[in-house]
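It would be a great kindness if you could assist me with a short task in structural biology. A protein sequence and the structure tokens that stand for its backbone fold form the material at issue. I should value your view on which stretches of the chain appear to form regular backbone elements. The record follows directly beneath this note.
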Amino acid sequence: MSNSTKTAAVAWLLAAVYYFYQYSLRSAPAVMMPQLSEAFGLSALGVAALVGLFYYGYSPFSLVAGAAIDRFGAKRIIPIGAAAVGVGALLFGLGGPDAAGVGRFLQGAGGVFALVGAVYIATTHFPASRAATLIGATQMFGMSGGSAGQFVVGPLIARGLDWSRFWVGMGVAGLGISAVLFFLLPKEAAADKPRLGLKGVLNAFGTVFRNPQSILCGVIAGLLFIPTTIFDMVWGVRYLQEAHGFDYAAAVVRSSLVPLGWIIGCPLLGFLSDRLGRRKPVIIGGAAVLLASVAWVLYGKTGVLPPYVVGIVMGIASGAAMLPYTVIKEANPPQFSGTATGVVNFLNFTFSALLGPVFAGVLQRVSGGAEQLELGHFQSAFVPLLYGVGLAILLTLFLRETGPAARKSSPANG
């Protein structure tokens, strides 16, 4: 392994660890909804709206992160994002509802620099034949954090850990991660980083946004992510408790299995795509299994399948949502790698930012504002997830295949 490859590997690993950290904060509120409701004086739906502010920061700052990393490089930008997440966690743990809202927004705005940074490093410093595998491995780190935010934090809260102490501790950890990133991320050579001015940044955005393939990638990723980001990470524990009668501990374990499945599925489907040299068949296959899994979660009978199988399979299959991150990079000029990643992330999580309150509102309407939600309420509110995944499969048919095998067999290459 050459020195440059080793340096790139270290940079990618540091960004991936940062992604693990921010994802644990993203998912942690799902296991402390009652505590947050009592502390902030909000209803469960109010807390869901507060928690959802994460995506109002995460989505638009995806564009900022991509353009900034293309302009200034990873070393000068990624640590700033980690510091913002740390400050956001402190505000969430120390303040009232208003400060917590600002803190949650900051967690999202700063957190997006982790994924965009890690994907940027993976796609600009490693061979294209390994792109999907590395992007999948990046998401593996993220979903490991997502699983830890439920599977590890849930039992700690159940044993009496004060929710505010958790957030303050994670805030301090975020500032520490920022310092580590600042000192250990390697500096990019000036020759490797074209200094785009404002005109160049706008040109990069224009190039990526005008490409219909970019829009397709963002929409497909968003439709495949929603079952995880909204259904599982916000409502999963409460769904299992109130609709199926699981106790808190069992509900936490079962809900955390979806991000645990991501840990397996993201690198596995990325590796499979790289081995096949094609992206579309893997996206469609993963989405089809995801569709069946979500349908079973909503309408299947508990106890028929072995425990934990559905959650794991749902998580593995939804790992297909990361493949559009590879496609958009391959469908756009290589010098706009960071911008392209930011655009797909922006489009992706705009779905979560906009639809999170919609699903909460539908739940409130179909339940008549009842404190105790029933299975039928959840089914009525979340059945659109099935249509969304089906639409993602249909849209994938319109994607241009960008995998290595397709490029080798194209007339231009042969």
